[in-house]
Amino acid sequence: MTIKTSLHELGMFFFFLVVAMVIFSSAAYYAEAGQADTQLTSIPGAFWWVIVTMTTVGYGDVPGRRALRSAGTNRLVVPPVRLATVGSRAFPVAAAHIWNSLPEHIVSASALQSFKRHLKTFLLQQSFRLAL
Predict the structure, then answer these.
(1) Which residues, at least 6 apart from 48, have a Cβ–Cβ distance to it below 8 Å?
(2) Which fold has domain 2-54?
(3) In the chain, which residue ranges form alpha helices assigned H by DSSP?
(4) How far apart are CA 78 and CA 92, in angstroms?
(5) Which residues face 69 on adjacent strands?
(6) How many CA atoms lie within 13 A of 48 on its CB side?
(7) CB 96 within 8 Å of CB 78
(8) Which residues does 42 contact at the CB level (< 8 Å), separation at least 6?
(9) pLDDT value of residue 109
(10) Which pLDDT value is given to residue 116?
(11) Which residues of the chain have pLDDT under 50?
């Protein structure tokens, strides 16, 4: 009974979902069109990426081209700064700088509890070093 009474609304929902899928898959295809190593080779091929992205299932069929950290170390890759107004204060840039400034024994901790303990000790030592 509920589905029968909501049939019009469900139809509108699926209509707008299909329209959004066509718009976003077209935008993703044209944004990636000039790249040599793209996996979005056609607009219909980008439909799957859009469906996975819009439903937040995130299968990872089309991985990003940029790595977040170096494969050999525990250091993050600092993204290039584009805007002079925000610059290094943008979260991805500032967070990577702060993470990379931590000592190796903290960022390579094997467990979360160990990471927390080492980080608290480090921050406490830094605070008292600045206060003295």
Answers:
(1) 61
(2) Helix Hairpins (1.10.287)
(3) 2-5, 7-32, 43-54, 91-101, 104-107, 112-131
(4) 7
(5) 76
(6) 10
(7) yes
(8) 29
(9) 86
(10) 92
(11) none
Which structure tokens are listed for 127? Answer: 């605070």
The pTM for the full model equals 0.44
> pLDDT, tens digit, for every residue of 10-21?
999 999 988 988
Both tokens assigned to 91: 């979260």
- Inter-residue contact 106 to 122 (CB < 8 Å): yes
- Tokens representing residue 93 in the block: 């840039």
Locate the domains of the chain by residue range.
Answer: 2-54, 87-131
The token pair that represents 104 in the structure block = 């190796």
Contacts of 90 (CB under 8 A, 6+ apart): 81, 83
